[in-house]
């Protein structure tokens, strides 16, 4: 069975699939790939099921040695990757020979790089998922030097996958402003009219304290019209919570299942992959979807 040796793990590389759906009622987040679209694309490129476990690398990718022949695909944040010193493309299946080393470099645009291998990463499942959840500690630990990853049985290899991969979505450049659609609510009535206007008209900047739990955003202060505390209630990926300091937090894959800060808006599912690729210091602007759009 083919395996992969971790020569260097990168800044933060974790095993991710599509997460643990269906456990929120006992306080377990879904977790899984922060940029689900990128993982699905990578899996389809190598002929895996959409939910097969792959690797998610944050900013700086790993260096890996393959102990058998394999087929890989890189998606998500754009980066320079080399296989035994020769450059390989992103968003395409690439054949790897036994003994070759894959070096995934630093992301040039975006934040998270995804690596799928035909057969998927074969690791123990926790509540039906291989996902690493940094909030709860469920799933395998982040990659470590000299660790060996086992792979599942490879499927179709370089033959075209039965389901065509979705189009590649390239993350916005670090110097550009990202635009993400949101729906107001469910607690927009907790905020002043001016706060709602600022949310939908002024840019916010991603704070360096952001992680897979959520993006901390700096910029205009969102003031409440109501005082007091809100009872803890369920949260969804993409919820924009506003703590008492008025600086919003956009919740990502490892978000808690409940929270007591009012949610002013929720990111549409199509915008979650964009949010997952935003880097510290990058600006983001929120907008409401156009009717019928």
Description of the structure:
This protein is mainly β. Helix content is 9%, strand content 33%. It has 2 domains: 3-151, no CATH class; 178-287, Cyclophilin-like (Cyclophilin). It is built from 3 helices and 19 strands. Strands 1, 2, 3, 4, 5, 6, 7, 8, 9 and 10 form a 10-stranded antiparallel β-sheet that branches. It has a 7-stranded mixed barrel with strand order 11-18-15-16-13-12-19. It has a two-stranded antiparallel sheet with strand order 14-17. Strand 12 and strand 13 form a beta hairpin. It is elongated. The mean pLDDT is 93.
Short description:
With 293 residues, the chain is mostly beta strands. Helix content is 9%, strand content 33%. The protein has helices at residues 36-45, 193-199, 269-276; strands at 3-8, 13-16, 54-58, 63-66, 70-83, 86-88, 94-96, 101-117, 121-122, 148-151, 178-184, 204-206, 214-218, 233-234, 239-241, 249-251, 258-259, 263-267, 283-287.
Topology:
Blueprint: E1 3-8, E2 13-16, H1 36-45, E3 54-58, E4 63-66, E5 70-83, E6 86-88, E7 94-96, E8 101-117, E9 121-122, E10 148-151, E11 178-184, H2 193-199, E12 204-206, E13 214-218, E14 233-234, E15 239-241, E16 249-251, E17 258-259, E18 263-267, H3 269-276, E19 283-287
Parallel strand pairs: 11-19
Antiparallel strand pairs: 1-4, 1-10, 2-3, 3-8, 4-8, 5-6, 5-7, 5-8, 9-10, 11-18, 12-13, 12-19, 13-16, 14-17, 15-16, 15-18
Task: Please give the domain count.
Answer: 2
Taking all residues together, what is the mean pLDDT?
A: 93
Q: Please estimate the helix content.
A: under 10%
Estimate the global geometry from the Cα principal axes: elongated
What structural class do helix, strand and pairing data support?
A: mainly beta
Distance from N terminus to C terminus (CA atoms, Å) equals 47 Å
Strand content: 25-35%
**Number of helical stretches of at least 4 residues:** 3
Total beta-strand segments: 19
Q: What is the H/E order?
A: EEHEEEEEEEEEHEEEEEEEHE
Sequence stretches where pLDDT stays below 50 over 5 or more residues: none
Radius of gyration: 20 Å
- How is the main sheet built? 10 strands, antiparallel
């Amino acid at each position: 069975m083919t395996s992969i040796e971790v020569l260097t793990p990168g800044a933060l590389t974790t095993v991710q699939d599509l997460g643990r759906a269906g456990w929120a009622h006992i306080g377990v987040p879904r977790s899984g790939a922060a940029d689900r679209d990128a993982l699905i694309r990578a899996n389809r490129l190598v002929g895996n099921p959409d939910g097969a476990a792959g690797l998610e690398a944050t900013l700086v990718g790993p260096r890996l040695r393959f102990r058998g022949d394999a087929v890989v695909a890189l998606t998500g944040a754009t980066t320079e990757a080399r296989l035994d010193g020769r450059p390989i493309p992103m968003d395409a299946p690439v054949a790897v020979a036994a003994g070759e080393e894959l070096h995934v470099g630093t992301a040039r645009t975006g934040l998270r790089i995804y690596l799928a291998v035909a057969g998927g990463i074969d690791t123990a499942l926790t509540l039906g998922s291989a996902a690493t959840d940094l909030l709860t500690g469920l799933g395998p630990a982040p990659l470590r030097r000299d660790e060996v990853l086992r792979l599942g049985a490879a499927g179709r290899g370089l033959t075209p996958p039965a389901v065509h991969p979705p189009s590649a979505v390239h993350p916005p450049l670090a110097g550009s402003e990202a635009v993400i659609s949101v729906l107001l609510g469910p607690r927009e009535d907790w905020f002043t009219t001016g706060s709602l206007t600022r949310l939908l008209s002024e840019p916010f900047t991603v704070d360096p304290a952001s992680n897979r739990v959520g993006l901390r955003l700096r910029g205009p202060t969102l003031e409440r019209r109501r005082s007091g505390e809100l009872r803890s209630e369920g949260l969804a990926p993409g919820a924009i919570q506003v703590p008492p300091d008025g600086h919003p937090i956009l919740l990502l894959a490892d978000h808690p299942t409940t929270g007591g800060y009012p949610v002013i808006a929720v990111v549409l599912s199509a915008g979650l992959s964009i949010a997952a690729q935003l880097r510290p210091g990058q600006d983001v602007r929120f907008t409401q979807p156009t009717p019928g759009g």
